[in-house]
Amino acid sequence: MEHLTKQTFIEKIFDYENSNEWNFKGTKPVIIDFYADWCGPCKMVSPILEEIAKEYEGLIDIYKIDTEAEQELAMVFGIRSIPSILFIPVNDRPQMAVGAFPKDGFIKAIEDIFNLQYPGKSNIIVN
């Protein structure tokens, strides 16, 4: 998972310095994890996002933004509590979710916001 700086955010996601109108630059849906190293719930979310990055490889891009290092980006998005997860569909407005949630919560959000089915293995056990 790539860590975004202000510069890479402007290049890959949205140039907020030169545009007030949302204009997503990506070609795949994106999840951005706004986090801090000292944040306990953020540490719980990180391995979940790593699993999701592997399972949805080629379908979704996942990035992390350290709110301590990138305070301007945190301010632009009004981040007041972390973790905050930004879901960016390709052709729609971004949606922010606040707080740590379990893997099935991410999968549900991906299905609802990105309209993508879970590509992982089914949990159905056949006897």
Total of helices: 4
Strand content: 15-25%
Shape: globular
Cα end-to-end separation: 37 Å
What is the element string, with H for helices and E for strands?
A: EHEHEHEEH
CATH superfamily assignment?
Glutaredoxin
| Percent range of helical residues | 25-40%
Named CATH topology: Glutaredoxin
Secondary structure: elements and pairs:
Layout: E1 2-3, H1 6-12, E2 30-35, H2 40-55, E3 61-66, H3 71-76, E4 84-88, E5 95-98, H4 103-114
Parallel strand pairs: 1-3, 2-3
Antiparallel strand pairs: 2-4, 4-5
Question: How would you explain this protein's 3D organization?
Answer:
The chain has 127 residues and is of the alpha/beta class. The chain is 32% helix and 18% strand. The protein is built from four helices and five strands. A five-stranded mixed β-sheet has the order 1-3-2-4-5. Strand 2, helix 2 and strand 3 (61-66) form a beta-alpha-beta unit.
In a nutshell, what does this entry contain?
This protein is of the alpha/beta class and 127 residues long. 32% of the residues lie in helices and 18% in strands.
Q: What are its keywords?
A:
Glutaredoxin, 127 residues, five-stranded mixed sheet, alpha/beta
